[in-house]
Amino acid sequence: MSIDLCGASGRRSYNRQKVKKPMDLHQIKGNTYWIDATETIPCFLPGKGEIILLDSGWGSLDRKGLSELLRRLDRRVVGIMNTHAHIDHNGNNVYFKEKDGAVIAMPLTEAALTSSPLMLKAYYYMLSPRQVPPELGDMVGPTDILIKEGDTVQELCGVPFEVLQLPGHSPGHIGIATPDNVLYLGDALIGEKEVQNARLPVFFSHEADLESKKKLYSVSYEKYALAHSGVYDDIRELLDLNLTMMEDRTREIRDLVTGPMSAEEIIAAVGAALKMNIWRPMRAQLLERDVRSFLNYLLDRGDLTLSIDRGILKYSKAGGEPGKQGNTQ
């Protein structure tokens, strides 16, 4: 995965899987830094020998590099605040809790999902119960501090962090602002290169994600950090790019519905049209989840309708203007 840093100083690229270079710590502003892992991992240095991670990265891909970096810096992870619970964002929570005694803070909804393998299976509904531990087991663990819907400030290890409610990419996704006026957006927004390369972006709720992105037009911080990826001085043009990409993909999937089609037929059409490399069952299951999210959005805004054909649920284009029709028949 390449990490592109787009800001006042230009652009630099890192490819963790090819270059295998040691991770390093880079200052954003004041005590707020970022780590060049498989994604941008922001962090805050509250005192000598301590570090607070804003998301903890992949267990399988980032753990060794993070551990080596922290050993070089002679810092221990005293706290982790998660924007959301996905395998590339909370995969080292349990590891650093056991190793360093890290205090974990997470949005309530996300913490509930990661409280047990069965709860996680409810979120990743397309996986079987026995698939969850080997594929996503690093996500499962206890949370010490629950960030509730409506909370605007959360203290962690004596440091007050501002909280922005940004659901959509996941049910309880948040943005986190450090005392240095740096806003970490997690996956609520993706970078310019990621927009260009995104074939099928992931949204738990398109409608909620759209509202969250629109809300970001009115916020003002000195710096913005994105997990995928980089640090920006301004995000307004990036918001435009993200919203255009979302609508383009939505329209492309709608256009692939050429008649009454089952979800499986549409998923196959999307995979072929986007040249998705489906090389193992887990990827096929994730593709199903992601396409169904688009279909739900198209149903809710009236672009598609539902019907039953010999007991099989079928999707069809609605008549008239997209977004103007009912959602069932």
UniProtKB/TrEMBL annotation:
It holds the Pfam family Lactamase_B. Residues 40-228 form the Metallo-beta-lactamase domain. This is Glyoxylase, beta-lactamase superfamily II.
